[in-house]
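Researcher: Batch entry, complex prediction.
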Amino acid sequence: MSNFGKGCHLHLIDGSAFIFRAYHALPPLTRKSDGLPIGAVSGFCNMLQRYVDGDHGPDAPTHLAVIFDKGSHTFRNDLYDLYKANREAMPEDLRPQIPLTRQATEAFNIPCKELEGYEADDIIATLAHQARDAGGRVTIVSSDKDLMQLVGDGVEMFDAMKNKRIDRDGVFEKFGVFPDRVVDVQALAGDSVDNVPGAPGIGVKTAALLINEFGSLEELLDRAEEIKQPKRRQTLIDMRAQIELSKRLVALDANTPLDFTLDDLELRDPDPDTLLGFLAEMEFRTLTKRIADKLGAEAPVIAEKASPEAEEAPQPEQPPFDASKYECVRDAAALEKWIAQARERGWVAVDTETTGLNEMTADLVGISLAVEPGAACYIPLTHRDGDAGDLFGSDKLAEGQMPLQEALDLLKPVLEDPAILKIGQNMKYDAKIFARYGVAVSPIDDTMLLSYAMHGGLHGHGMDTLSERYLSHTPIPIKPLLGSGKSAITFDKVPIDEATAYAAEDADITLRLWQLFKPQLHRAQVTTVYETLERPLVPVLAEMEMHGVKVDREVLSRMSNAFAQKMAGLEAEIHELAGETFNVGSPAQVGEILFDKMSLEGGKKGKTGKYSTPADVLEDLATEHELPARILDWRQLSKLKSTYTDALQTHINPDTGRVHTSYSITGANTGRLASTDPNLQNIPVRTEEGRRIREAFVAEPGNVLLSLDYSQIELRILAHIADIPALKQAFADGLDIHAMTASEMFDVPLAEMTPEIRRRAKAINFGVIYGISGFGLARNLRIPRAEAQEFIDRYFERFPGIRTYMDDTIAFAKEHGYVQTLFGRRIHTPEINAKGPHAGFARRAAINAPIQGTAADVIRRAMVRMPDAIRDLPAKMLLQVHDELLFEVAEDAVEDTIAAARDIMEGAADPAVRLDVRLVVDAGRGANWAEAH
DNA sequence: GACATCACG
DNA sequence: GACGTACGTGATGTCC
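Model: Structure tokens for the complex:
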């Protein structure tokens, strides 16, 4: 027998709406004692408290509940697998706060309701119907338009943001129809936020017009032939199924199976101890006091200082590593159990095993998963029987493996599920492998990137390093499994039991590292860096790398031959001049010829006791002697041939005809990317002969290469960071910055500037960025040290902000052990307090890192935003070379692409950082990279 | 595998 | 007063 009836007023709070509003309305607060993010929880509690204690007049609640979503998979996903598929992953600092909002609700003694497989909206619909049918009234606290279909007959909504009630007329204002036809309008108009398709080209306005004309969606679809506009008529006829599906998606289910009744939701007072205990635990000082006053209870004491125990976040007991506990998954039933575990938790560590290190050519051999420390498995897929001596048997799949496709079909929904976080170590690798098998892994977390964000500059971020350092565990080495040299085998030949121990352990380690690192991200104050500069770069780089750049083998091959001929001629000449034959490629032999045999000056021996013969030494000798000049010529050609025209050809992928570099996100301490296999960030450009190698980098027919590069980005950033008015003004006026510096330093009017004076100023400008020293500048400019020092002194005199910046930066590094970029990236400087020459290196690196690092952050931000900006253009981003982005674009879209990409690049710092100096991007285009640059 | 050298920003 | 010194990378060839 229910007590709920006439005179009762049920208030239903949409919990998710409260959480998101609280999250976005407040800065990212953290709990003082341990850095736990609690901003959203704080806002949520405040909103809840204000709502409960607020004056609702005649609409005061007699019954109250907060309704939450549960799980990501609902019956709507079964209807339409793309439902809510484009929803962005939950911000990482919000995720841990979700369970806390449930706890908060319970602490307030408010019923907290959720139901697996249903959205909060369905529960709200069910309760609203029940309450209305019982003769009571209902207030739904939300402004979500999806709930508007419920309004009417005593059911109203309340927009807590605008403090406004929404009734039937309010719904009509929004939709142009009354609540009973809202789903019809939504079915037609669709919803981009939830990915409800609707009818293309029809929005809310048109939809309302049609529904009002025909009376209902069903009527409209049945009589679609009568519509006058031909395009609209055709859409409705063609898209009927999609529209009907959309209606099923937007219609709320008012018959959810609830295990409680309206009576359970009766308003009740909170228990002071429970509520105050929770608030104190969250360390909400103001709110705790306010509520304690209201309840007439004493506010519990909240420690002011972070407790030392809390600083050293106690790690829960970890099971030891035990390879025998890892499961080898050999059939679908076993795999499904692991998948269920991943779904239950909302996360899973993933690692792939393949036949090689090149993601473009390596084949998938197996997959390992981990869900908890110690709970890991390996799924062998394409291991081969490696029976020695049996040439035919070696290609046969080993027994006891599930079919590759079956495993992928089972895993794909998990790997692509926006509600399940996929954790990996260097996920770009695994994501690229999976991409080749049609699986788009998302969302991801990456322990390598977590470490980079938190420990950049302290140590490497490979799994072995991290495992040893943070888990005190040495991973099973791969070497004994694969062997080395000629007898090395690929992973598919490794026996499955050995592979299981190795592979599952990798996933286990990754999961443990993630559980250790993830909560520390906030305490290290690098969450934003990780979330905006590291993690989102993974899919962007993966796409660039997979797309590759077209390289014309013919061009390289011709150049190789030409170089070989020239080198042969030079070599003969060199031997002639030396009076003997020797290996020109051996610096040791060159040194002996020059400094012993010919007794030339300037022979310095390195630590190996051999002469050093770098280019600058040979250049000095070359003014007087023929031999060193020819050796330099030979070396240049040798470099170009071996590193570029020869090696580059071997990197052309036979399937794509393109070269696919790999970018290392964590390779450089400053935040720069590094390019390997091959390195496409050091293709020659400074000499004419070298630059011609860029002619081999070409666009597909009908396309051009487009290069956009930041002009003087590091000097602009220096002007901003060190706050140099003269430099800022020069950039604002669009002056030649080196000429301006020269004019300022040497008192030469711009009109009388000579190339030599400008060259010196340029060297000083760069020297400043590198942590200038008199010695270094002297060597660079080939001038006496005293003179170089004079220049530097004058520079500091004219631009005193530079000195201050350098001193402040070093002081900061000494105090904190790191320096940071304008975007908050931290670069640790462990050697800064060292004694001896180490300290000098560390000081200069510390001065350089914020400048180089900020520039690196800027282009990272541009790259992360670029795919969206050029989405609708026939353009692809191919390469990044520190301050340059290279695109391949259809000829007729060049101007549009320049406009869009330049916009992103020049505005890349905004809105996180307001630079005093604007960023300028130059553009070039051509049939090849030489022309475009 | 260390070292020297040199390609780039 | 001496010590050493421009910042950040990766690939190649020699030599042990």
